[in-house]
Amino acid sequence: MKLKIFFSLVLFLAVFGDWIANEKPVYCQYQGKAYFPLIEVPFVKLGWVDWPADFQNDNWSNLPYEKVIKTLIPYSPETIDRNNLGLKSPFAAQNTNGYRERHWMGTDRIGRDVLAGWLRGFRLALSIGLLSISIAGILGIFMGGLAGFYGNDRFHLPVYKGFFLLFWLVGFLYWIYQGFETNGSNLSILIWLGIWLIIGVLVYYMPVIGKRIALPIDWMISLIIQAIDAIPALFFLLALLPLIENPGLFHVIILIAFIRWTGIARLVRAEFLRIRDLEYIQAAHLLGIKNFHICWKHILPNAMGSVWITFAYSFAGAILLEAYLGYLGIGMPAGTISWGSQMQQVRENPAAWWLAVFPGLAIFLMLFSLQKMGEKLESKVS
């Protein structure tokens, strides 16, 4: 129950952090017209909503509102308080107008509120963790399922179709790489990727002619897993990110997913190997049920109990990797505020303890809670 409360609170802070810490009001009446700035921001950027010229100056606190409902913390993570530049401690004297404007977790070296950035860190950590582990989970289940179900002697393919699929795989990886390089913003590359997927499906369903050979699926996938696991995750990221021009959040998510899928695949492979020879699976084969249906309906549901445990630990690993990258200042666009980027400033200013304690505490609580969740899932499975 305590874990549910904690993760509910984390989800709330991630989703509504900007409604808690922001210099823009939740609601205001200005020059006789009502505005909801926090809701209207994306529509203003799209040009669907017009704001008065005074709103464009970002000097929201000094505007003469007729009515106003302000946020709990009057600073966004990007707001620079020019009256409190240069690392103000939470307990130091601060040049503010009352308790509401005080920086309760201090400021960083350029006067940004640490508490507002701390709240933003929940959104970034959850976004990277959920997206990267979702991608890693899909890839890990697919690859582990292939290796475990077919092994080295159950996947038979005509020789000519094998050459076609090899050619298709090289092209598919090329278009994936091109999409990765352009952040998925180039429409022509996305169209070609879709065409290549259709070609792959057509090749797979080509008529069977000639000699068939057994492909060692398990051996090939296990070799890929061993090669990726042989390189420490952080070194892998540090080696690949500098090769990408203008790396961003999308690249970090994909690379973390590429690293984290192997643990999921190993567990799925082991579960598929255990279940595929059970009597009810053999009966399904005898009844003529297709392999995909057997895997999806009969094997995977029985294997997922153990997989959820790996998801919890992998989620913790993804959050830790994101914190490492933020601390090193690699992979994220300049100005991205995260727990790691807040802690980075301690390297230059060791006396700024608050920049290490508060983000470090958030990272610790997230990792500790995910560890406890993994242990709880383990006890249920066993």
Structural summary, described in words:
The mean pLDDT is 84. The chain has three domains: 1-21 and 72-154 and 216-382, MetI-like fold (Orthogonal Bundle); 24-70, no CATH class; 156-214. A hairpin with a 2-residue loop joins strand 1 and strand 2 (33-35). The protein has twelve helices and five strands. Helix content is 61%, strand content 4%. The protein is mainly α and 382 residues long. The protein has helices spanning 2-20, 37-45, 114-150, 159-181, 187-204, 217-229, 233-240, 249-275, 279-286, 291-328, 339-344, 354-381; strands spanning 27-30, 33-35, 67-69, 156-158, 212-214. The protein has a three-stranded antiparallel beta sheet. The protein has a two-stranded antiparallel sheet with strand order 4-5.
C-alpha Rg (nearest Å): 26 Å
Shape, please? elongated
Instruction: Kindly report the spatial arrangement of strands forming the biggest sheet.
Output: 2-1-3
Q: Spell the H/E element sequence.
A: HEEHEHEHHEHHHHHHH
**In percent terms, what proportion of residues is strand?**
under 5%
Please sum up the structure shown:
By secondary structure, the chain is mainly alpha-helical. The chain folds into 3 domains: 1-21 and 72-154 and 216-382, Orthogonal Bundle (MetI-like fold), CATH 1.10.3720; 24-70, no CATH class; 156-214. The chain has helices at residues 2-20, 37-45, 114-150, 159-181, 187-204, 217-229, 233-240, 249-275, 279-286, 291-328, 339-344, 354-381, and strands at residues 27-30, 33-35, 67-69, 156-158, 212-214.
